[in-house]
Automatic annotation (TrEMBL):
Native species: Pantoea endophytica
Protein known as: AraC family transcriptional regulator
Any Pfam family matching the protein: HTH_18
InterPro entries assigned: Homeodomain-like_sf, HTH_AraC, Tscrpt_reg_HTH_AraC_N
Key word Coiled coil present: no
Residues spanning the membrane: none
Source lineage: Bacteria, Pseudomonadati, Pseudomonadota, Gammaproteobacteria, Enterobacterales
Cleavable signal peptide: none
Keywords: Transcription, Transcription regulation
PROSITE patterns, sorted: HTH_ARAC_FAMILY_2
Domain spans labelled HTH araC/xylS-type: 195-293
Length: 305
């Protein structure tokens, strides 16, 4: 169980390094912070393999039809890249939402796993979900705090940050989510195959979806890929592709100032009416109205904490 004093120390450390709202990066390439002084609306974001701790406040994340709430004492673990919705639900100027995020570098994780004694992993069965929330163990919080404290000693980062990263891998693998991380990392596991399929969809979302090609490219049958993909992401491959397309179309219209027809065509829609219909269903209003009324803020453009 996490001691209150430990959380207060984490709050103080994050607050010192992020005096302003927004997402903040630092000299440690896999470490970032988030701060918000007020609640935010539910917004479409992208996630990647990572985990997050909320030191103060509370956030919510929606994946498919599932909604997860997390705050102090919770660990949000993400094991693959996927589109979700996220928002800050509890924050004030006096007590802002403060969070720390750790990106899981898959290359370094695989290198660590080559020497990791797998018999140390817990055998508790877990679901295939690519995102999960559970209680965080004190040793993992302690490792994260020591990593953040390195920012006060920049001369030590190059030597010590990689060692603390390996400790973080160890704490994750020997914790309740160890099997879930292995499911993501090991090539023969269904979770890893789904991650590869999701990566292909993300990089080629503008192309027509051919399930036979996608399934064979990751070494699965069509039915197996469909089953495991939905188990991991709470979406079918087609729903996943549609979210990627509609999020990118919104970005193209808001940031690159493309008209709806051009944005729809750019992300793979051949029919303007189909694009408008699916956009309206997904974002709640027509493309033109959405662009006119949306107050562009950093929350929906940035990954969640």
């Amino acid at each position: 169980m996490i001691h209150q004093e430990q959380w207060q120390q984490l709050v103080a450390i994050i607050a010192r390094h992020v005096p302003q709202d927004g997402r903040h990066y630092c000299p440690i390439d896999f470490l970032s912070f988030g701060r918000s002084s007020q609640p935010t609306s539910l917004a479409h974001v992208a996630t990647w393999a990572s985990f997050a701790l909320i030191a103060q406040g509370q956030k919510a994340l929606r994946m498919g039809d599932e909604v997860m709430h997390y705050g102090p004492g919770d660990l949000l673990l993400v094991t693959l890249d996927m589109p979700v919705q996220s928002c800050v639900v509890m924050a004030t100027p006096e007590k802002p939402n403060l969070g720390v995020g750790i990106t899981i570098n898959e290359t370094r994780l695989m290198r660590y796993l080559e020497h990791f004694p797998h018999h140390q992993l817990g055998s508790t069965a877990v679901s295939e979900r690519g995102i999960a929330v559970h209680k965080v163990a004190p040793p993992l919080v302690d490792a994260v705090m020591r990593l953040v404290e390195l920012l006060d000693h920049p001369q030590d980062i190059a030597a010590l940050a990689p060692l603390i990263e390996q400790e973080i891998f160890y704490r994750l693998l020997t914790g309740p989510e160890g099997p879930r991380i292995l499911n993501m990392a090991l090539t023969e596991r269904p979770g890893n195959k789904v991650a590869r399929a999701a990566r292909w969809l993300r990089e080629n979302f503008h192309q027509p979806l051919k399930m036979d090609f996608l399934a064979s490219s990751v070494g699965m049958s069509i039915s197996s890929l469909h089953h495991h993909f939905k188990a991991v992401t709470a979406m079918t491959p087609m729903q996943y592709q549609k979210q990627l397309r509609l999020n990118e179309a919104r970005r193209l219209m808001l940031i690159e100032k493309l008209d709806a027809g051009t944005a729809g065509y750019r992300v793979g829609y051949q029919s303007a009416s189909q694009f408008s219909r699916e956009y309206s269903r997904f974002h709640g209003q027509s493309p033109a109205r959405d662009v006119r009324t949306l107050a562009v803020g950093p929350e929906w453009l940035n990954p969640p904490q």
